[in-house]
């Protein structure tokens, strides 16, 4: 009886001892990082393999298709792209940093992770490379996207694609109702209420707890004249503007959103809009081509969708940036690929193929304007990207987003009042900042 | 009496029909979805339509079959190790009364530990031993929950085998281990089959350890299925096709084994 | 061919002594029965001999060799268990042949020898069956066949007949004995059934509380049990036991029963034992015992008697029953020379009268 | 024979070795981490901070909320599974017609990875896209399956869909291993079917039921994928389960030390429950 227990204890003790000896390895990611050459222009005869972890989305497919053309310039660099769904990719990426052996040579970084990754020393600073790359024109990137790559004045990435949000709506329904695109939050609420009929919702919303609700509501917050942070970086979530935005959000949800949609996220909302069961949604700007694609989910409704900036002109910005892990085994080759794919000329190709914009010049390029998604679309994107802000700043971005998203969800579910929820959100962000 | 019996058999048939429908309708929906185009997926009532094989093409192209093969391999190795080590250990526990009954349940308690916590120790070990490009870490992680369950399952089966069989074989000229292998083990084969299938299910379904610990570029099936849940929406059609690929072979297998399975479990396992 | 010897053999579980310094000799080629009530240590002794239980003290020797630390397989023994322990997954033939697999005998040879054994046991037609398709008696034979195929030095039987019905038990008893006699292999046989012990054994060892109460030829033990325990354990119906005094050729119990004992010397306090066959009844209107119940066994009958507070039994010829209706009063006497006297304190046999 | 001991340990050696590596090592390591301030983004060896993590999580209302959500989920899901599983097992036991096919089909849900089950139900229960709300609407019912007050129960129902088959499997085995005589005796005595079930079958089935319930409860405690696929813990924190909470804390928010402490608190509670359960079992079932 007790013999086995003793055996178990003994083996557990042994394991614990082993753990202590190995624990030196914990968090050692990046320690063995090879020194970066800091080179900007990478010689065309550079050899190496660049292993990249990317999100499995159409933007990645476009990049994959461009690899052949990259190899015409850099025949010695082999590009291996591993794609995973967003949530999986994140977990896998974090895990890969625990190794002292490089797992990936080039990665894409979502904006809330940037500060934490830099703080952990996971990423290579890129200032020297960016500034010494010939004809790179870094000033051409949309400034809000560049801001995200900057931590304490140092750039650790270059933009890959944006997911700034905007208002996506059905032009036929707006025309039918004789309405114009909303310019204020009140107009937005009034419009979507007016668009609501017995078999159609005025707006498909995404109140799923956590990331989704915060990402959507923050647009309402900006439209109400509020902000997430003030100039000094302190949260401003318990302001009258925030309360007005949350009230409006809840009013729209209860009066103009589809029935029984409390856990809806992007997927449900997109399906609802594309199938004609909702008249509009607030979502990523690059959804427009998909919605207007006759072979896509919209079917016969394709062509009747349009994009506009949020009322008030400011919206939420998300972005993916290329970054080189500090333990990259092929940082020069990695930079060669990152600089090539984001270079002005290749960016045009990428955007023509349907990739999301990162450069202002690309959107005024004649080839792009003729490519078929339409000048209005690119004009709207320029407007959107000129005034957009991310959800989080500084360390603990992910946690901050989840914390605020939880409080907002409580308010929508009715388990907290608007005031309580916002006060708690404010407190949570302040706690995380400390 | 007769009327009551009839009433019961009608109720019984009704119950089974409802249960069968509850199980099959969602699966049927998944099967239908695997043949729908994105636009057709938005229409839940659509049952009759021209089937579209794009999803299947996409799933096959995404290497779901390879992923299924890798999952089957990982699950088979995990289960094989668990059955060998588990049956030996279970016999020692059952026949020699090693450990009290509380220990028997205690074996299972570690099962509740969140994978989110255990995965990093596994990962550290994988890196430290330079095993991160092999399936060994995933297999070990799966062993951490499959082996205890299989061991625990089998203790009950061994409890049902008379001790005298082992003793007889030893007197007949065999070592204890030979007696175990040649005489005792054959008595619990059905139970081992049952335990193996259950263990296979656990390994086959695990996503999290597979995601973090499997070698890069070599995803296992649940990871491949979950990969259709992208940031730009769930690729329902493709995911449905992948689910069908994951389920059909196992259901066919379970059709053939389930009778033995139930009998196997009846042999023991549920006594303590 | 081997003699088995127990030398101060001891078995303890914790502080409980199960077998207490037992000395037994099992002569070569003999069939020795270990008999006693349950818990007396007989099975444990057998299992120590088989190597299935650890020996806590003393030595067990087979053919002069100490086998204490040996594995069962190294002891050259064969054993038949009470539940036969047939291997359920093997056929009759494979079961019988199984011990040969340990000796690396070629499969074909092993199966041929098993077939011979099966034929000799009358199992020839059943060799391809599985144990669950056999009757109890057939299973028993398979178990015996498996024990004899390897021609071991010692046979061990652990209550091998107790799962059979009464009729089959008597038949099998005889068969078993014949096989043992034919092979001449030393056999140790454990049973709780004294009748089985009496009829089968060359030597009988009666055990009680981990010790040997008495050992010897069965007829000797029957005739001269050395204690009240052995006296009552051996023989059926059970020996009548009464405490009391002997004076003037008669035994008197405190409750007033009287038994004529002939010329036995006087004892102030004594335990008297008399086998029912040796208790004679003579109807008498002044008798001290009364017929309470009569069980007819055919030519003989068991008569249950109330003698004051004592209950006694006597076995009589059926012919004598006419004089012994229920309620009849009888005088009791002991057949000459058939008296057993025991010391009331130690319960041991008193020196021969 | 000393070889009894050595044989026993030799037989246990593989399972102990593998368990030592596969369970003991991560367990020991996680225990160590739970005593440190380790973050996934921290460099170098973490600082030893004693029981600070434990003090923090034990006083964290979010942890207890997650715990009580999980408990409610487990109780509802396992209770329903037990009742349904037993009923279906009783019905299946007597069924002759296409017996193997029915049984194999009923087991199918077990073989789908839970994340896919969660995603499937997310859409099946979607008000605009799903077949189930469409069917319900036709009879005038409108439910927000993942809405406030409903979400946790919906998740429990998904669990019921996927894991009742396991219950059926075990209970069917239990029923088939019950000796015939007591049931026949009760029938001869003229007992009603219900009485026979309650007084004869159920007591005989108790050990099996206990094991089934225990296995299922331990597994249900690990609910993560359904939450991840559907509600992400919402609305509010209604469906935040202990595993989801640990995942967020440990991986999304990088605080692995703190998450490990939550894991050990959970382990301690589960162990205590098992021991209590076991004591009671031993008292009620003399054996």
Automatic annotation (TrEMBL), chain A:
<keyword id="KW-0732">Signal</keyword>
<dbReference type="InterPro" id="IPR050490">
    <property type="entry name" value="Bact_solute-bd_prot1"/>
</dbReference>
<comment type="similarity">
    <text>Belongs to the bacterial solute-binding protein 1 family.</text>
</comment>
<dbReference type="InterPro" id="IPR006059">
    <property type="entry name" value="SBP"/>
</dbReference>
<keyword id="KW-0813">Transport</keyword>
<dbReference type="Pfam" id="PF01547">
    <property type="entry name" value="SBP_bac_1"/>
</dbReference>
<protein>
    <submittedName>
        <fullName>Carbohydrate ABC transporter substrate-binding protein (CUT1 family)</fullName>
    </submittedName>
</protein>
<dbReference type="InterPro" id="IPR006311">
    <property type="entry name" value="TAT_signal"/>
</dbReference>
<feature type="signal peptide">
    <location>
        <begin position="1"/>
        <end position="28"/>
    </location>
</feature>
UniProtKB/TrEMBL annotation, chain B:
<keyword id="KW-0472">Membrane</keyword>
<keyword id="KW-1003">Cell membrane</keyword>
<dbReference type="Pfam" id="PF00528">
    <property type="entry name" value="BPD_transp_1"/>
</dbReference>
<keyword id="KW-0812">Transmembrane</keyword>
<dbReference type="InterPro" id="IPR050901">
    <property type="entry name" value="BP-dep_ABC_trans_perm"/>
</dbReference>
<dbReference type="GO" id="GO:0005886">
    <property type="term" value="C:plasma membrane"/>
</dbReference>
<keyword id="KW-1133">Transmembrane helix</keyword>
<dbReference type="InterPro" id="IPR000515">
    <property type="entry name" value="MetI-like"/>
</dbReference>
<protein>
    <submittedName>
        <fullName>Carbohydrate ABC transporter membrane protein 2 (CUT1 family)</fullName>
    </submittedName>
</protein>
<comment type="similarity">
    <text>Belongs to the binding-protein-dependent transport system permease family.</text>
</comment>
<feature type="transmembrane region" description="Helical">
    <location>
        <begin position="105"/>
        <end position="129"/>
    </location>
</feature>
<feature type="transmembrane region" description="Helical">
    <location>
        <begin position="179"/>
        <end position="202"/>
    </location>
</feature>
Automatic annotation (TrEMBL), chain C:
<dbReference type="Pfam" id="PF00005">
    <property type="entry name" value="ABC_tran"/>
</dbReference>
<dbReference type="InterPro" id="IPR008995">
    <property type="entry name" value="Mo/tungstate-bd_C_term_dom"/>
</dbReference>
<keyword id="KW-1278">Translocase</keyword>
<keyword id="KW-1003">Cell membrane</keyword>
<dbReference type="InterPro" id="IPR003439">
    <property type="entry name" value="ABC_transporter-like_ATP-bd"/>
</dbReference>
<dbReference type="InterPro" id="IPR017871">
    <property type="entry name" value="ABC_transporter-like_CS"/>
</dbReference>
<protein>
    <submittedName>
        <fullName>Carbohydrate ABC transporter ATP-binding protein (CUT1 family)</fullName>
    </submittedName>
</protein>
<dbReference type="InterPro" id="IPR003593">
    <property type="entry name" value="AAA+_ATPase"/>
</dbReference>
<keyword id="KW-0067">ATP-binding</keyword>
<dbReference type="InterPro" id="IPR027417">
    <property type="entry name" value="P-loop_NTPase"/>
</dbReference>
<dbReference type="InterPro" id="IPR047641">
    <property type="entry name" value="ABC_transpr_MalK/UgpC-like"/>
</dbReference>
<dbReference type="GO" id="GO:0016887">
    <property type="term" value="F:ATP hydrolysis activity"/>
</dbReference>
Automatic annotation (TrEMBL), chain D:
<dbReference type="InterPro" id="IPR000515">
    <property type="entry name" value="MetI-like"/>
</dbReference>
<feature type="transmembrane region" description="Helical">
    <location>
        <begin position="259"/>
        <end position="278"/>
    </location>
</feature>
<keyword id="KW-0812">Transmembrane</keyword>
<feature type="transmembrane region" description="Helical">
    <location>
        <begin position="160"/>
        <end position="179"/>
    </location>
</feature>
<feature type="transmembrane region" description="Helical">
    <location>
        <begin position="104"/>
        <end position="125"/>
    </location>
</feature>
<comment type="similarity">
    <text>Belongs to the binding-protein-dependent transport system permease family.</text>
</comment>
<keyword id="KW-0813">Transport</keyword>
<feature type="transmembrane region" description="Helical">
    <location>
        <begin position="12"/>
        <end position="32"/>
    </location>
</feature>
<dbReference type="InterPro" id="IPR035906">
    <property type="entry name" value="MetI-like_sf"/>
</dbReference>
<keyword id="KW-1003">Cell membrane</keyword>
<feature type="domain" description="ABC transmembrane type-1">
    <location>
        <begin position="67"/>
        <end position="275"/>
    </location>
</feature>
<feature type="transmembrane region" description="Helical">
    <location>
        <begin position="200"/>
        <end position="218"/>
    </location>
</feature>
